[in-house]
Amino acid sequence: MSSSGPALSQQARHPPSGSISTTSTDTGKFHLHKQDYDNVFKETAVPTQLLKTWASTFAHNLQIADRHLGNICTFNGMPFLSTSGQEWIKACTGEDLHLEQCPNAELPHWQHSSTDPNGYELPELGLLYRVIEQYDRSVFRLFFPILDPDLFESTIRTAYYGETSTVSPGLQSAKACVFAFIALASLVLHGTEGFSLKFSARYVRAAHHFMPQAFHEPFTLDGLQAILLLCLCSQGLAADFASIDHLLSAASRFIYQLKGHLPAHTAWENPTPVNYHVRHLFWIAYICDKGISLATGLAPALEDAQCDLTFSVIPPETIDDSRGRRHVYGDPYPGSYVHTYAHLALIQSRIHRNLYTPAALKQPDADLLWAIRDLDHAVEEWKDSLPADIRPSFLQAVGNAPGSVDMRFSVFHLQYHHCMVMIHQTSSRCASWAQNHDTRTTSSSLAISVTASRSLLDRFLYFQLKLGPENLLFSLSYFLQASINLFSNILSRPLDSGNQDDIRLIGMIAELISNHHTVDGPLCYHAKIKFAASAISELKRLAQCAVDKANRESNG
Predict the structure, then answer these.
(1) What percent of the chain has pLDDT over 70?
(2) How far apart are CA 84 and CA 1, in angstroms?
(3) How many CA atoms lie within 13 Å of 4's alpha carbon, on the beta-carbon side?
(4) Residue 59: is its pLDDT beyond 50?
(5) Mean pLDDT value of segment 196-213
(6) What is the reported pLDDT for 65?
(7) Quick check: 178 and 155 in contact, CB under 8 A?
(8) Compositional bias of type Polar residues: which residue ranges (predicted)?
């Protein structure tokens, strides 16, 4: 391939007229047609001569550039494009891709010593209890109930008074846990009680200060809690995937040592509240691990084959009281957000294993298409299990807002559409199948991927889904992935009539991200927002260049 990029023929740059079709109903909803979807997967054998013919499809154009859409991912939270992919972009747009890099000075340095002489003093006890009370009322706590109130009292006594116990035997681990908790709570409670993001960053630094000493202590509940709390802080304050990867790796070793990968009644003859809560923390770690793995492409820290992934049977008469007794059975109780999220994490693990591992990349087309169909059905079944008011769906017209737009709907909406994107974009690997089907039809797997990307971005714009500091950076990699999907679709079909709407959507997402810049955030927080907004704005610019170039060539 020459340095000037792949030579795309005039015919290859101009696909047949038409676009992804949708049906409008009286309610203004747009439905993606999937009734013919199963039939698509029955046709996997293609005559040899068809492999040599031109097919103006999304997948084929990507293959001209020696890139598959399924490999254009936001690894490490940033767009990752190979040299051949960038050459394809230049061939389509006539422009080079320019991505602003984050200056090293703005990256998080959690391990740096504090210059504040009081930086490692525990927060005032009254403040800690006020924060605990407020955090316990937050929706975020429903997703990540890392602390058990009764057990955390032992942690407080150890950290503040040195009164160690079997629940909290390590002083350094206890201090790290307290600092990590108040750091996360400050992030979640941003804007109340005078909390700022810089306040949260200061306590993250303090928690990291105690972690090296905590690692010299025995494996404890406090140590595991501190690590998971720091995982969430690293995500929320800096989208620091390198730190998260280190922390999740450490969390997995704590879990194995504390036998959290097994049901408490299986691992222990007489389980204690600590044993049950460790099992509960296993599921939170599992959720984080599988989500990060799918978003970054990194191998998961927790291996499914080494874990018992069954849920304990909880007596129905105790479910109503389970919110206040989270550690009693270990596994999340049915209907809780952790239970719902854990079921999705199990599917996310299958998506990564069946579509993105080295073995999955080598599987025959027929096996890949079967895996796509199977995983699509699994995600749809999970979605249908959600309450109607927080159940995600494909594109809806403006004005048909969901019943709830708080964090619950935002998280499930984001995860559902991201799963659909990650499942269906892999069909671009099937060159023979893609060349025998028009990928713009609504039964096309790639069309589903593009529509899911559009819907993911559309909902955050028009329904003002919750994007507080605690989940903005968590969402950035998903916004980047969806924007890259739409961008690649535009480059593949620059003359399609709907491109201007998608270009406008990409630009509005960049503006939405920029508008979340806050004056009280740490440099690492602002750096990621600045980078993401800049990268997506660059995609918008190049997409418009591709459309303009195609129009000039068509008219010339």
Answers:
(1) 70
(2) 8
(3) 2
(4) no
(5) 88
(6) 33
(7) yes
(8) 1-12
The answer to whether the beta carbons of residues 20 and 451 sit under 8 Å apart is yes
User: Number of C-alpha atoms within 13 angstroms, CB side, residue 295?
Assistant: 29
Rounded Cα distance between 108 and 541, Å, is: 30
Q: Are 495 and 548 in contact (CB under 8 A)?
A: no
Q: How far apart are CA 446 and CA 463, in angstroms?
A: 25
Helix (H) or strand (E) holding 30: strand 30-31
pLDDT at 44: 33
Considering only CA atoms, give the Rg of the chain.
25
The confidence band for 452, taking pLDDT boundaries of 50, 70 and 90, is very high
DSSP letters spanning 289-333: HHHHHHHH-PPPSS-GGGS--PPPPPPGGGGGGGGG-TTSSSSPP
Between residues 461 and 214, the one the model is more confident about = 214
Q: Which of 70-74, 224-228, 251-255, 306-310 shows the lowest per-residue confidence on average (mean pLDDT)?
A: 70-74
Quote the tokens at residue 460.
């955050």
**Chain segment 391-425, per-residue pLDDT in tens:** 888 755 444 555 445 677 788 888 999 999 999 98
| Amino acid type, 189 | L
| pLDDT surpassing 70 at residue 471 | no
Q: 261-295: buried (b, 16+ CB within 10 Å) or exposed (e) per residue?
A: bbbbeebbeebebbbbbbbbbbbbbbbbbbbbbbb
Q: What's the burial of 239, exposed, middle or buried (CB within 10 Å: 0-12/13-18/19+)?
A: buried
Q: Which two tokens stand for residue 310?
A: 């069954």
Angle between helices 273-296 and 469-492 (to 10 degrees): 30
Place of tokens 């908790």: 181
Rounded CA-CA distance 340/334 in Å is 8
pLDDT-above-90 percentage for the chain = 44
| CA-to-CA separations, 155 to 187, 188, 223, 440, 451, in angstroms, rounded | 21, 21, 10, 57, 48
- What would the 3-class secondary structure string for 57-87 be? CHHHHHHHCCCCHHHCCCHHHCCCCCHHHHH
Per-residue H/E/C for 201-269: HHHHHHHHHHHHHHCCCCCCHHHHHHHHHHHHHHHHHHCCHHHHHHHHHHHHHHHHHHCCCCCHHHHCC
pTM beyond 0.85, yes or no: no
d(CA 34, CA 448): 9
The SS3 of residue 31 is: strand
Please compute the mean of the pLDDT values over residues 24-47 and round it to a whole number.
Answer: 35
CA atoms within 13 A on the CB side of 505: 27
Higher-pLDDT residue of 74 and 198 is: 198
Full 3-state SS string of 425-487: HHHHHCHHHHHCCCCCCCCCHHHHHHHHHHHHHHHHHHCCCCCCHHHHHHHHHHHHHHHHHHH
Residue 154 has pLDDT above 70, yes or no: yes
Instruction: Tell me the one-letter amino acid at 403.
Output: G
Return the structure tokens found at 76: 């490490």
